[in-house]
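Researcher: Here's the sequence for the chain we discussed earlier.
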Amino acid sequence: MTDASEFALHAKAELLFPAHLISALRELRGEEWQALVDRISALPETHPDSLAFVFMMIELDGCMKCNSNNYKFLRGCFLCATQTVQSFKGSDQELLDMYERSKHELNLHLQQGVLPGVLSLAA
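Model: Thanks. This is the structure I predict for it:
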């Protein structure tokens, strides 16, 4: 059982990558990435393109495996996402391709009821 003091210590840690952190990732990559972040940051958090970006970051960061005993959780979402984007070994175009795949998967879910995660973002 978690007491209130432990919760207060980790108040900045979220369970999944939050949309309000998207703009903070802007300067971590090149111009293509920056253009994507600029476009997505200008959208409401509930816009499908914003949700697709969040979905991509959840997959990229490994948020579904994160828990309060995890080092990444203890550092918080901002530092985890920053490190993940900075250390991504692929090109900006590969990140944009991942975003487009997550956007496609989200659209399938919204239009046809296909469950997110059925398609592989790494494919």
